[in-house]
Amino acid sequence: MSLIYLDFNRTTPVAPSVIESMQAFWATHFMLPSQSHVHASAVSEAIENAREGVSMLLGCDPFEVVFTSGGTEANNLGVLGAAMLCHAGGEPHALLPSYPCNREVPPPHALISEIEDEAVMAAAKHLRLLGWKVDLVPCDSQGVVSVDEFESRFELTTRLACLQLANSVVGTIQPVRELADRCHHHGIRVHCDATAAVGRLPIDINQLRVDTLSLSAHKFYGPKGVGALFVRRGLDLHPISYGESREMGLRAGSENVPGIVGLGAAASLTARCVDEAQTTLQELCERLANGLRSTLGSQLTVLSEHAERLPNTVAIELGCDAKRIQKAARQLVVASAQSESPPDEMTRVLRAIGRTDKQIGRTLRFSVGWTTSREQIDRAVDMIAEACECASP
User: Fold this and answer.
1) Which fold has domain 4-10+274-391?
2) Where does the record place the Aminotransferase class V domain (predicted)?
């Protein structure tokens, strides 16, 4: 029996057209764009074409796109790059010391939703080393963060707010536009992690109105090890890596040319397909949830069922241990929580929406993709039903 892959939120296969676009840049066009040779101009042109592809996907200008090594670096640059240029007054300033010497000056303040990606959460921890005060904003039982809750925590020194566009665990879509409007009214920057949303939802920067936004190529059929950060025109950021300056002074080191070309190709492909794909992905998820509900009945709970969610994502709690299900259904690739300490992102998000550790241990996250078929969904339902029967005491 062939593998059934239903973990597209973790990573996606590289699309054939993306692989083809990258081929020439491994050996034929191997130069760096900074080299003084006519053949290097082809490389430089390819990078700018990729930048334009990403800008078309996001609805921004090409010069607002900064290439990174992936979503993690993009999130780090969006959070720390802004923080390193802010002090309590909110104006560009020299780097903050680890612990501000002037104790009479209140520290700058950041608000981070408690269900953010690990990269954003880790960057938030580092903010404290830069002298920042950091508060986590909770979500409700559906996995949605309240803009009113965010606003109730605004302080005179609040300089940064972070809210993801969609959660990769339960799929909930967050009120980013509304938060951005309220933050900007108070002079607060907004960083948005969109890594889980790109390829599943259309993205329009002008509608979201965020200041920085991150994406990762391997989440939407591009290669691993490359991503991008949207940086709104006129916004200052400080680089977080040092060396030979690249990407408008915000990165250091040689460009990952094949990866950047692949990212551009994946962005162009996604821009053409995302609208049509939404409907198909939604139908597949509904087929999965309805099939499991029909088979398992009261043993099944669909998480965040009453919230607006990504069309490709459904998290369910079963009546038996998820690890035992995965062990019994070996040909099925889905996500489950890792209980080891420190808790992984899935555990952390499920705890945030009020799930107990026992419930978390019974939870699986399914995420379908462009290559998922109805036949695969039906087979997955049968496999899970059989596995649940075998795992029942």
Assistant:
1) Aspartate Aminotransferase, domain 1 (3.90.1150)
2) 4-379
Rg (C-alpha) for the chain, rounded Å, is 22
**Contact (CB, 8 A) for 270 and 239:** no
Q: Where are the domains of the chain?
A: 4-10+274-391, 16-269
Spell out the residues 6+ positions from residue 113 whose beta carbon is closer than 8 angstroms to its own. 136, 137, 139, 145, 150, 162, 163, 164, 174
Question: What CATH number labels 16-269?
Answer: 3.40.640.10
Q: Which helix (H) or strand (E) holds 52?
A: helix 40-58
What are the b/e assignments for 275-297, b being 16+ CB within 10 Å? eebbebbbebbebbbebbbebbe
* Residue type, position 281, single letter: L
pLDDT digit string, tens, across residues 341-353: 788 999 999 999 9
Pairing of strands 227-231, 212-216: antiparallel
In this predicted model, what pLDDT tens digit does every residue of 284-325 receive, in sequence order?
999 999 999 999 888 899 999 999 999 999 999 998 899 999
Task: Say how far apart CA 96 and CA 391 lie, in whole Å.
Answer: 55
- Is residue 386 within 8 A of residue 331, CB to CB? The reply is no
Which amino acid makes up residue 326?
Q
